[in-house]
Specification:
The protein is an alpha/beta fold. It has one domain: 3-Layer(aba) Sandwich (Uracil-DNA Glycosylase, subunit E), CATH 3.40.470.10. It is built from nine helices and six strands. A six-stranded mixed β-sheet has the order 1-3-2-4-6-5, sandwiched between helices. Helix 1 runs antiparallel to helix 5. The protein is globular and about 40 Å long. It starts with a helix and ends in an 11-residue tail after the last helix. Bound molecules: iron/sulfur cluster. Iron/sulfur cluster binds next to helix 2 and helix 5.
């Protein structure tokens, strides 16, 4: 196990250094830097968002603004946290100007980065936060179409839910998002995703 942690951590660090040099699309020119992602190198659950916002771009960390704080609260309510059993990434690693939705070309340009992250992490479960992640990883255009069921791709289980920023705009969706997270936790237990939940919670 210790060897696996070391291997994955080293693999992610090497990839981080590589992605930090990426200029495959124009987003990099306007961003402060690359927001690679963060979490537990041996995470069994990976959360995929859209792209960095202003605060994320400033701190070069994923989900640290208001939406990120809501995500952290939801994870904590489910006995999870971003550094234990969980890893958080985005579809594009550089901030789109004014938080616009990344274009198809930008998503395609950044796909090798996300794909390499998922290959190293090799999670049991990938949680898709919002339409951009759902489109990119499932090819389904709307979150509402994709929610409420599991999609298995190559031995990995995908689940769609709302982006936390959408929950801030539409608080009535929070109950649905909580149901989605509970389904993820139940699935991780069913799959024996050891370490997905904090001890004693
Ligand atoms: S968004 Fe992705 S593809 Fe575009 S420059 Fe940043 S890291 Fe590279």
């Amino acid at each position: 196990m210790a060897e696996q942690v070391g291997d994955k951590a080293a693999g992610l660090e090497a990839l981080r250094r590589q992605v930090e040099q990426c200029h495959r699309c124009g987003l990099r020119d306007q961003a402060h830097g690359v927001v690679f992602g963060e979490g537990d190198p041996v995470a069994r659950i990976v959360f995929v968002g859209e792209g960095p916002g202003q605060e994320e771009d400033r701190l070069l960390r994923p989900f640290v603004g208001r939406a990120g704080q809501l995500l952290d609260k939801m994870l904590a309510a489910g006995g999870l946290d971003r550094f234990h059993g969980v890893y958080i990434v985005n579809v594009v690693k550089c901030r789109p100007p004014n938080n616009r939705t990344p274009t198809l070309d930008e998503r395609k340009a950044c796909w090798p980065n996300l794909s390499a992250q998922l290959r190293i992490l090799s999670p049991n479960i990938v949680v898709l936060l919002g339409a951009t992640a759902v489109r990119t990883l499932l090819g389904i255009s709307r979150v509402s179409q994709a929610r409420g069921q599991w999609y298995e791709r190559g031995g990995v289980w995908f689940r769609a839910t709302f982006h936390p920023a959408a929950l801030l705009r539409n608080p009535s969706w929070k109950a649905g998002a909580w149901e989605d997270l509970q389904a993820v936790i139940a699935k991780s237990q069913e799959l024996g995703a050891g370490g997905a939940q904090r001890q004693g919670t």
